[in-house]
Amino acid sequence: MNAKIRLYVEHPLGQGQSLTLDKAQAHYLFGVMRLAVGAAILVFNGRDGEWRADVTEAGKRGGVLRCVAQTKPLQMPPDLWLLFAPIKKARTDFIVEKATEMGAARILPVMTAFTNAGRIQRDRLQAHAVEAAEQCGGTYVPEVADAVKLDRLLESWDSERKIMFCDEALAGGTACLPDITAAVGPWAILIGPEGGFSDKERARLHGLDFAHPVTLGPRILRADTAAVAAMTLWQDRLGDWA
Ligand code: SAH
User: Would you say the pTM of this structure is higher than 0.90?
Assistant: First the structure.
């Protein structure tokens, strides 16, 4: 049977393991997708790979699945974090969705001097990451962290983790990407807000050994475009695409 629906669940997964569905999951599988007992779907929890699971009980408010066979092992993304300044709601959602598809291990909203977005709803963004993982075939879901001030984050930064600092002030200048090609190890990409980085932030970042300023070409990209472009570049040079 061709199991196409992929569902993220919290339960541990393993041979013969039964999973109790909550109301929302039951509504989706049996109300919206019209599955019945005996149907097969794919489940993953971000830890135990992907499993084929059969529906053994289907109800309006709940149901039960049983894991039959593992269909994919857990595939971890590279150790790449995405640091981005939240922008308008729909564009922030887009960044989280794309970062998940592109293979970010962790997504961190950072508040910079010119960040003008209001409070972010971490849970909503996390749900977007789950949805993106469900549809892109991923077996891992990146954690969306609570928003943190860029200054504070840099104060406690582990200098082993290099930062690919996307600096719009370098637009059109010489690409610095060759600098990072030899540098394996943990990385983070930093994308600024619509207003860009302040002079103070830029000066600070240029002074940090672990921060590598890069240009994303001669045109100024919107933050959401910049996030996808930067992750593409990084994946191509250092990531798990090859
Ligand atoms: N308002 C700013 C642009 C901000 S673009 C200005 O006009 O200068 C939002 C973010 O995307 C930037 O902070 C940067 O991190 C990234 N970005 C966009 N275009 C870029 C480029 N050509 N090179 C490097 N980073 C870029």
Answer: yes
For 145, counting Cβ atoms within 10 Å of its Cβ (0-12 exposed, 13-18 middle, 19+ buried), the class is middle
CATH number of the 80-238 domain: 3.40.1280.10
68-101 pLDDT, tens digit each: 999 999 999 999 999 999 999 999 999 999 999 9
Element (H, E) at 98: helix 89-102
CA of 13 to the centre of ligand 1 (A): 42
| CATH classification (class only), 6-72 | mainly beta
pLDDT by residue (tens digit) across 105-161? Answer: 999 999 999 998 878 899 999 999 999 999 999 999 999 999 999 999 999 999 999
Structure token pair of residue 193: 């807000």
Domain spans, the chain: 6-72, 80-238
Give the residues surrounding ligand 1 with Cβ less than 6 Å away.
Answer: 166-168, 170-171, 191-192, 194-197, 215-217, 219-221, 223, 226
71 CB neighbour count, 10 Å cutoff: 16
Residue nearest to atom 9 of ligand 1 (CA): 223
